[in-house]
Design a protein that fits this description.
The chain is mostly helical and 610 residues long. It contains 25 helices and two strands.
Length: 610
């Protein structure tokens, strides 16, 4: 399965997760909203509003749900009914979550969770924790924290014995596993499917079958994948779920993997028609991507490009896959003999590759910090509770102390293993990024060699005029000016060339004056250009960014395993070892010595046998 296809499955799983959450929320109506007792007119009104919210979310009508839940919250607050107020916060959070208001969503869902805990209402806590997990997975891309919230939600669901809610949470856990290409949770997918069959719940039966299909496809078991894909279509048709677009995307992918391109093309076209009929944009871009891959495989290169352009136009959250989209577009142009277009697309792919790598590293650092924080809080809580139980009993306290020390030792070892695992992920991410960058640069150089040089066009001197109202050379402040955008970009590209090709950052004496002289401008304009073109970096940050990148490349090279870190610091132009360590830790998420240790461990450890 190609990288682009795996990313397509990731986007598809977000849709499945939303469907599973809606199924879970719809159960609230059956659990707490169906047996409404008219104690008073106001109470009856609150029960009616809760029932309407439950039925509205089941119709995926989030605009109506947003207005209705706000009314519900106002009425519950006026009546002083905490239980209804907690449910109103939950429904409002769900409406915000699925209508692209992530900040408002998390605030409302946390309020519902806190009120549910105060009321000892496990149903509310379960629903809130599950939706917070979906928020972390879809809005923050923090899969570790999302999995933690789903697990906590499952604990509360088991406490109140709401087995139907458990089935939906199992579906969300399967979605996380599939995004991570983890096929070990296929057992949960089967439990979800079998539970839906036993309870005659079509939503859970559909979601379970779809998860078994996609996880089996990841495992290479195409027969099982095909069987459960047809099962999902059968359940959807029989119960009028209107979710067949996503199943036909999976069916097209199975046929594509089997090399049956004509059938794959037919199913992809059907998925597009169903998604367009239901205005399902998330599934629609997946179908476009599938169609583009099929056309490329069949040699219909121009048609493949047209589908990719539709995918770019219709996708609202495609940042993580734009590299694959432009790479496939470049392959199409290259096959058509349009080397200039192919080169342009490869350049765009490289830009998005750099952006995605930076984003992935940021997410990885955030996951690391968050996971360590949660583990630390759990350890402190366990330690505090253990000490309270030990008070007053000396002998028992000594025994428990020994057990506690063993537990803390185990937690410490576990934390070290998790930390090492996170460090290995950081190193692996950098190594893959370096290899991908080498491959892209090689293809760019190869295509540039085939492109005939363009004749130089005379440039108008009028376009190079820089108008400056006032420049204070004695202060590091740039007063209002007029600098042509083209000129700024030209100077900035020259700066990048000097850094990347001539590696002038290795000069420890490099400063603003000498650098401005190299690019033919003054130091005030240089400061402004760097800030505008590099996303707000100052000169030191701009130079140190290249130094840290080079440090990562050297530390990721087998031939430089014995390169002394102090010598590396000096060779890269840093003034002190402490500065080098600090900037490396901030930029990479670990120290240079820890990076080297993890790299050596990775290259010296043989891969596990499958």
């Amino acid at each position: 399965m190609t990288t682009a296809q795996r990313y397509g499955i990731n986007r598809q799983m977000t849709q499945v997760m939303v469907m599973a959450c809606v199924t879970l929320v719809a159960l609230v109506c059956a659990l707490v909203g169906c047996d409404r007792v008219a104690v008073s007119s106001r109470q009856d009104q609150l029960d009616t509003l809760m029932y309407r919210c439950a039925t509205t979310i089941n119709r995926f009508d989030y605009t109506t749900l947003y207005d209705l839940s706000r009314l519900y919250l106002a009425e519950a607050d006026h009546a002083g009914d905490k239980r209804h107020e907690a449910y109103a916060h939950f429904y409002l959070g769900a409406a915000c979550l699925y209508s692209n208001r992530p900040d408002s969503a998390i605030a409302e869902l946390q309020a519902a969770r806190e009120m549910g805990q105060e009321l000892s209402n496990d149903t509310i806590v379960t629903l809130a924790l599950n939706s917070i997990g979906i928020h972390e997975a879809t809005a923050n891309n923090n899969l570790y924290l999302a999995q933690w919230y789903f697990t906590e939600s499952l604990k509360h669901a088991k406490q109140c014995e709401y087995t139907k809610i458990e089935g939906s949470i199992y579906g969300n856990l399967c979605s996380i596993a599939q995004i991570q290409n983890d096929t070990t949770m296929i057992g949960y997918a089967r439990e979800c499917y079998e539970f839906g069959v036993r309870q005659k719940d079509p939503h859970l039966e559909f979601i379970g079958a779809l998860h078994i299909c996609d996880l089996s496809r990841l495992m290479g078991d195409m027969d099982t994948a095909l069987f459960y894909c047809h099962k999902a279509i059968e359940v959807s048709d029989k119960n009028g779920l209107n979710d067949n677009a996503i199943t036909y995307v999976s069916l097209s992918g199975i046929m594509y993997d089997r090399g049956r391109l004509a059938e794959a093309d037919t199913y992809a076209q059907k998925a597009i028609e169903l998604a367009e009929a239901n205005s399902n944009k998330m599934v629609l871009v997946n179908a476009y991507d599938q169609k583009a891959n099929i056309c490329h495989k069949q040699g219909r290169y121009q048609e493949s490009i047209e589908w990719l352009e539709k995918e770019l136009a219709g996708g609202e959250q495609l940042e993580m896959v734009k590299e694959q989209i432009y790479d496939l577009m470049a392959q199409n142009y290259e096959a058509m003999g349009k080397t200039n277009k192919a080169l342009e697309c490869l350049t765009r792919a490289k830009e998005f590759s750099d952006s995605t790598n930076a984003s992935d590293r940021e997410h990885m650092k955030r996951e690391r910090d968050m996971s360590f924080s949660i583990i630390e809080q759990q350890r402190e809580l366990e330690f505090s509770q253990q000490q309270l139980r030990n008070r007053g009993i000396i002998i028992g306290g000594l025994v428990l102390l020994v057990l506690l020390l063993a537990c803390l030792m185990w937690v410490t070892i576990r934390n070290m293993r998790r930390r090492n695992g996170l460090y290995h992920n950081i190193v692996r991410q950098h190594m893959e990024s370096i290899e991908r960058e080498k491959a892209l640069n090689a293809r760019i150089d190869e295509l540039e060699a085939t492109v005939p040089p363009e004749p130089d066009e005379p440039q108008s001197q009028a376009g190079k005029i820089v108008e400056v109202e006032t420049v204070d050379e004695s202060a590091d402040v740039v007063l209002p000016k007029s600098l042509p955008t083209a000129k700024s970009e030209h100077i900035y590209r020259e700066l990048c060339r000097l850094m990347e090709q001539e590696r002038i950052y290795t000069d420890p004496q490099l400063n603003r004056e000498s650098l401005a002289q190299r690019v033919g401008t003054n130091k005030s304009y240089l400061t402004t250009i760097i800030s505008e073109c590099s996303g707000g970096k100052n000169l030191s940050q701009f130079i140190n960014h290249y130094r840290i990148q080079e440090a990562v490349r050297i530390l990721s090279d087998r031939e430089h395993i014995n390169y002394p870190l102090k010598q590396l610091c000096t060779d890269l132009g840093f003034g002190s070892v402490s500065t080098f360590y600090k900037l490396f830790q901030e930029g990479v998420g670990m120290s240079p010595s820890a990076y080297r240790k993890s790299f050596i461990h990775m290259i010296s450890t043989p891969p596990a046998s499958e």
